[in-house]
Every structure is written in structure tokens, then in C-alpha cells.
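Researcher: Sequence recovery benchmark, item below. Answer with residues only.
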């Protein structure tokens, strides 16, 4: 009996050793491979990051304004961010008031060289050099004379003034002379300067459009 018992325990021990040493069953191995694959895939996705959305192509209008802003920044040594803001405001005011935005920008160039805090000896202020005492009604809705040092408001009021003169006289040169308070100038020097600057901007845009 003792010998039989020892033999039985020996067989049990050998069986346990064999079970520990032999490879895992095939289905277990498959499960381990699947788990490892899913883990690796998740890690790969994390490293790669999310897929970026495709950028929308630039519209012709946006391309035009960007080109004008770059032109203004380079020609008048204005920060590109500020130039972009002025150009956007001029195009917006031009649309609202039905005034050529390039004409608005040309007036700004001649009047203040794109300095939003410029002030003349006559008290004209801001980008389009608006004299407050002549346009108090327009300023009332914008908070008073201080609004003229705010670029968007200044351009808005300047565009309104230009529209009034354009409607009254029906001719750009005369309207510009009135804007400058130089109606009696037979040579129309102010209008010539503004129109020449507008022509420069337009010529630049022609080149941009051809390249596009």
C-alpha cells in the first residue's frame, strides 16, 4: 500500500510538471495575440493623432483683401495685423455705404498714412481725418468724439461722408475735393493724390488676379 501510494504521488507530480512546462493551448494563444494586436493598434492611433480637417480654399474676395493688406503693410510700414483690420473695415464700410473700398483706403493713405491716432492742426482725427465738430450727429450713436480714434468707427464715418459728397456732386474728383475742404482748388491736387494712390492699389490687384 505504501509503495502504491508513493507511486501515485510521483505520477501526480510528474503530471503537474508537464502541464506547467508544455505550451498553452492554441485557443489561449490566439486570445493573447488578439489582445496584443488591439493594444498595439490603439497605441498607434494615439501616436498618429487625430486626422486634421481639410482647410477650406481661400475665396477670391479673401485673397484680394489679404493682398491689399500686405500692400498697405509694406508701403506704409504698418503691422500686418493692423493693416488687415483696416482693410477689412474699409471693405465692410464700402459695402454698407456703397463706396469703393479702394477709394476709402486711398483716402486713408493720403490723410493719415494709416496712423489711427493722427490729428491735424485743424482738429481732424484718426485714419480718415474727420473733423468732429462737423459731424456730431454721426458721432452721437458711436459714443462721441472719442470714437474717431477707434479705426472701425473712423472708417465708418469717413465712408458716410464720402458717400454724401459722391451723391451730391455725382463725380469722384469733386467729392474728394469737398472731403478735403479744398473745393476751390482749381488744380484738384488732393483728388489727384487720392486717385493716384487708388490706381496703385488697383494695379497691384490686377497682378494678383493674373497670377491666380
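Model:
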Amino acid at each position: 500500500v505504501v509503495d502504491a501510494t508513493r507511486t501515485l504521488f510521483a505520477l501526480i507530480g510528474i503530471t503537474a510538471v508537464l502541464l506547467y512546462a508544455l505550451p498553452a493551448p492554441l485557443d489561449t494563444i490566439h486570445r493573447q495575440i488578439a489582445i496584443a494586436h488591439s493594444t498595439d493598434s490603439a497605441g498607434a492611433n494615439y501616436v498618429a493623432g487625430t486626422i486634421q480637417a481639410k482647410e477650406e480654399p481661400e475665396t477670391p474676395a479673401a485673397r484680394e483683401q489679404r493682398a491689399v493688406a500686405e500692400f498697405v503693410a509694406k508701403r506704409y510700414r504698418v503691422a500686418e495685423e493692423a493693416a488687415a483690420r483696416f482693410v477689412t473695415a474699409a471693405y465692410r464700410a464700402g459695402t454698407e455705404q456703397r463706396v469703393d473700398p479702394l477709394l476709402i483706403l486711398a483716402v486713408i493713405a493720403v490723410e493719415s498714412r494709416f496712423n489711427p491716432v493722427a490729428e491735424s492742426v485743424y482738429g481732424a482725427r484718426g485714419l480718415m481725418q474727420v473733423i468732429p465738430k462737423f459731424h456730431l450727429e454721426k458721432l452721437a450713436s458711436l459714443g462721441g468724439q472719442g470714437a474717431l480714434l477707434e479705426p472701425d468707427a473712423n472708417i465708418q464715418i469717413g465712408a458716410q461722408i464720402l458717400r454724401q459728397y459722391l451723391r451730391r456732386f455725382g463725380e469722384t474728383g469733386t467729392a474728394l475735393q469737398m472731403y478735403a475742404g479744398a473745393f476751390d482748388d482749381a488744380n484738384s491736387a488732393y483728388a489727384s493724390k487720392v486717385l493716384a494712390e487708388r490706381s496703385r492699389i488697383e494695379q497691384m490687384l490686377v497682378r494678383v488676379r493674373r497670377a491666380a
